Amino acid sequence: MDPLTQGVLGASLSLSVSQKQHLIVAGAFGLLAGMAPDLDVFIRSESDPLLFLEFHRQFTHSLFFIPLGSFICALAFHWLIGKPQRLSFKQSWLYSALGYSTHALLDSCTSYGTQLFWPLTSERYAWNSVSVIDPVFTLPILILLVFTMFKRNTWFARIAFLWALTYPALGMIQRDRAEVAGWQLANERQHAPIRLEAKPSFGNILLWKVIYETEGHYHVDAVRVGTSVKKYPGEAIEKLEMSRDFPWLDLNSQQAKDIERFSHFSKGFLAKAPSDELRVIDVRYSIVPNQLNALWSIKLSPSVTHDTHVEYETHRANSSASRQLFLEMLLDF
Fold it and tell me: How confident is the model over 110-135, as a mean pLDDT?
């Protein structure tokens, strides 16, 4: 999730157990520790552009790292904000631990993937119940925390945390409804999907991207699940096949290894870009949910050395036409 959401959720839990005289400092610890795991985005390499994909949502997001991560936060912030407010180090650590503990579980509610049990496993858990940015989720928490401070009443923080549990649960219900609609679309096409997933589109749990895999293709559709279910049939693309799509590529080269790394991050949902024969896209994400305009990709080159990495690129261009199409689906115009 975005840093604001992570911070206010961490603050809501630390404030829920705070004493009235510690409201501000408890909220500060929860806010800062709630955002702290995302400091892993600074683990980068100029020569290896995929390094950050391996480390983002890895060890800092592991449930096993919560005691150490929160301890580091307490060490960093106790002398600045805890001790001046007469908190013991144990109290600073407690508020930090409460804030830190919310981060990975919230990230797992999105579709990006979080390594909850690293180092035991590198599996990326994604429950696909909330978009990475969703104002309907975040704003009530923020408003309730403001009430907590002004009214000096921790019950508002507890209600905020309850909302943080309720909304993803609603998202799971919506996800299941979208998956049912996806299976219906596949059956109508006489397809037998190998796997099928539904992911919330940007900023809501009404409009969903459904992607399913058949023997040789990926199919993407959009489904709006309100009081009724509306389907928006979409596009299909051939699955990536190394020998066919890149016959010139040495399978022992760094570029081939990088495709494997990108595949692990993307859960295997890879295809060659329709508009660029040297680009590999992650077909799971797009602004318009029934289209294949990927948000990120890697690019290969047949002229580089054996140990050269691929290029990693993001594609955040958002045209007025795509925004209009997205809103028409979301609002059911």
Answer: 96
Question: Exposed, middle or buried: residue 233 (CB in 10 Å: 0-12, 13-18, 19+)?
Answer: middle
CA distance 333 to 329: 7
Is 132 exposed, middle or buried (CB count within 10 Å of its CB: 0-12, 13-18, 19+)?
Answer: middle
- How much is the pLDDT for 20? 87
pLDDT band at 69 (very low <50, low <70, confident <90, very high): very high
160 burial class (0-12, 13-18, 19+ CB within 10 angstroms)? buried
Which pLDDT score, from 0 to 100, does residue 317 have? 64
Angle at 267 between CA 266 and CA 272, to 5 degrees: 55
When pLDDT is cut at 50, 70 and 90, the band that residue 320 belongs to is: confident
Q: Are 40 and 55 in contact (CB under 8 A)?
A: yes
- Residue 207 β-bridge partners: 224
> Average model confidence (pLDDT) for the chain?
96
Q: Which uninterrupted H or E stretch holds 220?
A: strand 217-225
Cα 60 from Cα 263, distance rounded (Å): 22
Distance CA 325, CA 194 (A): 29
> Do 240 and 280 meet the contact criterion of CB atoms below 8 Å apart?
yes
Token pair of 295, please?
């948000």
- Tell me which DSSP letter residue 124 carries: -
